[in-house]
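Please review this pair:
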Amino acid sequence: MKAKTYIETTIVSYLVARPSRDLLLLTHQEITRDWWQSRRCHFDLYISELVMEEAAAGNPVVAQRRLEILADITILPQTPSVEVLAEDLIGEGVLPSKAAADAVHLALATVYGCEYLLTWNCRHLANAEIQRAARVIAGRHGFDLPTICTPEELMGGSQ
């Protein structure tokens, strides 16, 4: 059985972005493309309406490319449980109010039992201190927090 994996918006953004002049960002883009080409088939991928909304923003040509990539991925609907968990992640100070969308991404992946949340957002999601606090809140709601990681961390074991 494939691992259920929530794809956060930064992943598809890195996939279609022009190569960055910043060497770290360029490396992240290349890792993301490599993961997408070689590893995504090993996972059941999921997104949300929020990912679709964020992907549709900005330059219309680039947005269209992001939406085309996401077209065949299953959309997880937002539920009252998702909303309550996201509100608690903000209300209890795990995430700042300006990161409300990140709280929703995390709540969606958690409520739907995803094993992984794939992201390049290391400020609010792929952040060990935030994950520790979020795990406690998710547990109070009866959920297990997914492993939140970057594509680099989800490249598989040695072959």
Observations:
- The domain at 3-154 is CATH 3.40.50.1010 (Rossmann fold).
